[in-house]
């Protein structure tokens, strides 16, 4: 993208905030808004966008650290970041267990309540806790964070390759993605439990996000005299996927296809990302982001909003299921959407004063 770094961050924060809001409503079974989000008309969903943007944001942060300090400082920061994400995973896992336990005590046995994890914790508490600490057990929405912790550990090796040998990084990433389904059982996991996101597969999207920041791929291709053909192909792929999703696919696909990032999910996302890059280049996304700054605020508080969003969506989903008995109810569904989105905005807004106080203290002690 040809815009300055600051404007690019405005667009990045907007997309990240939008995706976090979508993730919250997408995990509310009776949500009305989720009937119109990405998964409703595409073969992929917000998870692909979340991981790709994570790679892009990581490249932005790493490059900024290198520019302001040194490469070794950037490496140390991302090693600490991996530990921060691991702690966020433990907090999220605890939230999933506590919320589920409260719901069960209230007699609310909603579909997304982590009943199996609660039963395992009650039967063998030490083993269940050890499984969580070792990431062998990942209660409900906590499952994406172990993957991110591994990505953060790989960043110090990944970013130099993205800058200097991008083809080597991309080819290696594709090979690993292709082999990922065969290596899924090698990941640490408790009995009869699998990772929701196979990091060996999903790393390809993270790498694509890193490369999108480190290499001017979109600019080079779109500037070519035949570059418009790529945009046309992306548009055709988007329409075909939407036609299939809306008109042919009757039942949800097998969960392993998402776990291992099936090729059609990847291809559909790449087409959407290409079209979105065109909107960014046109300046349209920047205008929308400035008109809706509250979405960017959620994006800037990404990790905090994700962790709190998991609890918000599980609570709202469970209570909505209780009141509607699992049936679609438009007034209650819209109310649930409004409550969930409002709660996440309050989290983002409420964290601002705390962040400012901490920033002042850091400057004072520096």
Automatic annotation (TrEMBL):
**Keyword Transmembrane helix among UniProt keywords:** yes
**Keywords associated with the record:** Membrane, Transmembrane, Transmembrane helix
TM ranges are 12-29, 49-67, 88-108, 140-159, 166-184, 196-214, 226-246, 261-280, 301-321, 327-348
Protein known as: OpgC domain-containing protein
């Amino acid at each position: 993208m040809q815009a300055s770094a600051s404007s690019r961050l405005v667009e990045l924060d907007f997309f990240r905030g939008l995706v976090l809001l979508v993730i919250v409503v997408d995990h509310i079974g009776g949500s009305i808004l989720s009937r119109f989000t990405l998964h409703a008309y595409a073969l992929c969903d917000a998870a692909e966008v979340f991981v790709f943007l994570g790679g892009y944001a990581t490249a932005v942060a790493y490059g900024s650290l290198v520019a302001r300090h040194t490469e070794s400082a950037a490496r140390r920061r991302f090693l600490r970041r991996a530990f921060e994400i691991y702690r966020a995973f433990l907090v999220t896992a605890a939230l999933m267990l506590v919320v589920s336990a409260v719901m069960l005590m209230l007699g609310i046995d909603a579909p997304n309540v982590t009943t199996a994890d609660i039963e395992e914790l009650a039967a063998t508490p030490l083993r269940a806790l050890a499984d969580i600490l070792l990431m062998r057990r990942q209660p409900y929405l906590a499952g994406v964070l172990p993957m991110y912790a591994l990505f953060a550990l790989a960043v110090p090796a990944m970013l130099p390759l993205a800058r200097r040998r991008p083809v080597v990084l991309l080819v290696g990433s594709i090979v690993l993605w292709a082999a990922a389904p065969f290596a899924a059982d090698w990941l640490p996991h408790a009995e009869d439990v699998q990772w929701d996101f196979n990091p060996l597969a999903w790393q390809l999207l993270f790498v694509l996000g890193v490369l999108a920041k480190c290499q001017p791929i979109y600019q080079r291709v779109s500037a070519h005299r035949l570059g418009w053909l790529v945009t046309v192909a992306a548009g055709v792929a988007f329409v075909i996927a939407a036609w299939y999703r809306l008109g042919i696919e009757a039942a949800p696909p097998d969960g392993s296809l998402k776990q291992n990032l099936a090729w059609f999910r990847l291809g559909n996302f790449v087409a959407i990302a290409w079209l979105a890059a065109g909107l960014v280049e046109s300046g349209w996304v920047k205008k929308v982001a400035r008109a809706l700054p509250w979405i960017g605020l959620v994006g800037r508080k990404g990790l905090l909003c994700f962790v709190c969003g998991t609890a918000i969506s599980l609570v709202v989903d469970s209570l909505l299921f209780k009141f509607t008995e699992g049936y679609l109810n438009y007034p209650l569904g819209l109310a649930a959407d409004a409550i969930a989105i409002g709660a996440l905005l309050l989290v983002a807004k409420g964290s601002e004063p705390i962040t400012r106080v901490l920033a002042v203290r850091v400057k004072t002690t520096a």
